[in-house]
Design goal:
Length: about 250
């Protein structure tokens, strides 16, 4: 069982977001980056569980990014991945990332390719579907549970009012969300071993991008709360009519 897990680095959730170059680029200065939680907690951990249940196989991480991201990749190795591949390029957009991963994975014989449902930075949820299309593989999105029986993958998805169970044949691409697995914390042995696990560096394959950033607009942020005396219903009604916004 060979499993490939796509991982991204994202700004820590406590990061104060700022932009440069006339609001066309994210300002990385002083930002602490982490392993994308959907990739780490759900895709990677479930991949490790599947490998452990089978008693053999390998779990490989793949990441598109520069050398400065190696520290984030090594966290995934500390959690238990066997090795990693870093495609040496700045991830320009989702299609660029998907095409780079597809170019690497197409002839490597992976039984399963797993991704988090999205990155917490862009929330686009596009790479998994694009990757499946580029590799001509079945795709199950937003899976909350995944089991394997021989060459059949059975997954569950949350749907309006219940749960949907779907099956497909391996190899396949699966995107994972909350419910897929429980997060693991790297232990000292895993951290020590991660320092010697290989990260293969692969050159960019010459893919193009489909989108470009026109600009970013910072969120307005929270505004002050108005406290109304319970006895003053007229003022409350007036504010609800004239100032309250329906979201």
């Amino acid at each position: 069982m060979k499993i490939l897990v796509c991982v991204s680095n994202v700004p820590d959730t406590t990061t104060k977001i700022a932009f440069t170059n006339d609001n066309t680029e994210f300002n990385k200065q002083g930002v602490q980056f982490i392993l994308n939680p959907y990739d780490e907690w759900y895709a990677l951990v479930r991949a490790l569980e599947l490998k452990e249940a089978k008693g053999s196989g390998s779990v490989t991480l793949i990441h598109v990014g520069p050398a400065e991201n190696d520290a984030v990749i090594r966290k995934g190795l500390a959690i238990g991945a066997d090795d990693a591949v870093r495609i040496d390029a700045e991830p320009a957009d989702a299609y660029f990332v998907a095409e780079q991963v597809a170019a690497y994975a197409k002839d490597k014989g992976f039984d399963l390719i797993m991704t988090g449902k999205e990155t917490i930075s862009y929330n686009s949820s596009m790479v998994g579907g694009m990757l499946a299309e580029l590799l001509a593989l079945p795709y199950i999105s937003l899976a909350t549970k995944l089991d394997l029986s021989g060459t059949t993958a059975t997954a569950e998805q949350d749907v309006d009012g219940g749960t949907q169970v779907v099956e497909c044949q391996l190899p396949a691409v699966i995107s994972c969300q909350k419910g897929m697995a429980e997060a693991r914390i790297p232990n000292m042995r895993g951290i020590t071993q991660s320092r010697t696990k290989p990260i293969a560096v692969v050159p960019v394959s010459g893919a193009s991008t489909l989108t470009s950033v026109a600009g970013y607009t910072p969120a307005e942020g929270r505004k002050a709360v108005k406290m109304i005396d319970p006895a003053n219903m007229d003022e409350l009604v007036q504010l609800l009519h004239n100032e309250a916004k329906v979201i």
